[in-house]
């Protein structure tokens, strides 16, 4: 596509480059409507956006927020979500066809390995017996690394039954079914009292309802990690809103913030239940 080549070759300022990308997305809705069919183009666009963000300067960030456009951000959020889902579905296909044979071949594996290392380093509990990951997706890479670092059984839940079907087959293929259990959970009212650690995926929504349910049913020693984004990573991911209601229910006990240069995209908040 000529339009894409113009974006990839753009040498103008950061904001101009982001604006050109959103204009391209606006004109090519098929990229997010059918990301797997149009994956090559979407993948090249997302890789370009990530590179621009990872290499951005503090001046770029300051100027971007002066000209921020919520419609632009929403377009990129949707495209990035579609790209991640298509990436996961493609990896499942590759496993089924024999092109891939282990989770370490998943293209974002190293990012999630680093992310779970950061997140588990925040935990204070010494007697963790079971963990929950909310929003496990087609490739439950976070649940896999959570199990690796904590060495405890991990449950993963997702509102999408297709994602659970895909991820269950993957876990079985990897011989991890004795450690990781994946469940379809379309209802927001579920009991989390058996878990000592709960991690909420960045794409799991709505955060307010998820956190409200956790608050009602969690055990008093449970630690919650809620993923979010900071700085220019907001362009890729919608940040978790730290509302007054959240502060009434939870304290923010620690953070792992990803900003500036580097290939990581997700930051994390460690939450503890406030005293009633």
How is this structure best described in words?
This protein has 276 residues and is of the alpha/beta class. The chain folds into 2 domains: 2-101, no CATH class; 105-273, Vaccinia Virus protein VP39 (Rossmann fold, 3-Layer(aba) Sandwich). The chain contains 11 helices and 7 strands. It has a 7-stranded mixed β-sheet, with helices on both faces. The longest helix is centred in the first third of the chain and has 28 residues, at 70-97.
How is the topology of this model organized?
Elements: H1 2-8, H2 14-27, H3 30-33, H4 39-54, H5 58-66, H6 70-97, H7 109-122, E1 131-134, H8 141-150, E2 154-158, H9 161-173, E3 180-184, E4 197-200, H10 207-217, E5 223-228, H11 244-249, E6 250-256, E7 267-273
Parallel strand pairs: 1-2, 1-4, 2-3, 4-5
Antiparallel strand pairs: 5-7, 6-7
Helix pairs in contact: 2-4, 2-6, 4-6, 6-9, 7-8
Brief overview, please?
The chain has 276 residues and is of the alpha/beta class. It contains eleven helices and seven strands.
How many structurally independent domains?
2
Structural class: alpha/beta
- Would you count the extended β strands for me? 7
Strand content: 5-15%
Name given to the CATH architecture of the largest domain:
3-Layer(aba) Sandwich
| CATH class label of the largest domain | Alpha Beta
- Roughly what is the average pLDDT, rounded to an integer? 90
Largest sheet: 7 strands, mixed
Please tell me what the overall shape is: globular
**Can you say what the CATH homologous superfamily of the largest domain is?**
Vaccinia Virus protein VP39
Element-by-element helix/strand order: HHHHHHHEHEHEEHEHEE
Which radius of gyration do the C-alpha atoms yield?
Answer: 19 Å
The N- and C-terminal alpha carbons lie at a distance of: 58 Å
Would you tell me which CATH topology of the largest domain applies?
Rossmann fold
Strand order of the largest sheet: 3-2-1-4-5-7-6
């Amino acid at each position: 596509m000529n339009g894409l080549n113009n974006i990839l070759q753009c040498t103008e300022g950061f904001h101009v480059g982001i604006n050109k990308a959103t204009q391209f997305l606006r004109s090519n809705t098929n990229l997010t409507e059918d990301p797997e069919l149009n994956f090559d183009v979407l993948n090249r666009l997302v890789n370009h956006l990530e590179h621009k963000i990872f290499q951005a300067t503090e001046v770029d960030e300051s100027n971007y927020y002066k000209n921020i456009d919520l419609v632009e951000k929403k377009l990129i959020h949707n495209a990035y979500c579609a790209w991640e889902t298509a990436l996961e579905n493609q990896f499942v296909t590759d496993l089924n066809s024999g092109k891939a044979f282990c989770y370490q071949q998943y293209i974002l594996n190293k990012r999630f390995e680093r992310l779970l290392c950061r997140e588990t380093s925040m935990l204070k509990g010494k007697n963790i017996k079971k963990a929950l990951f909310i929003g496990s997706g087609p490739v439950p890479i976070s649940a896999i690394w959570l199990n690796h670092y904590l060495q405890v059984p991990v449950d993963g839940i997702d509102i999408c039954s297709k994602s659970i079907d895909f991820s269950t087959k993957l876990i079985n293929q990897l011989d991890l079914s004795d450690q990781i259990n994946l469940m379809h959970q379309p209802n927001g009212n579920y009991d989390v009292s058996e878990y000592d650690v709960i991690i909420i995926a960045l794409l799991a929504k709505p955060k307010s309802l998820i956190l409200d349910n956790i608050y009602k049913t969690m055990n008093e020693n449970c630690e919650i990690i809620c993923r979010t984004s900071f700085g220019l990573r907001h362009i890729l991911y919608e940040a978790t809103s730290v509302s007054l209601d959240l502060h009434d229910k939870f304290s923010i006990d620690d953070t792992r913030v990803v900003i500036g240069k580097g290939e990581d995209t997700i930051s994390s908040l460690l939450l503890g239940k406030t005293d009633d």
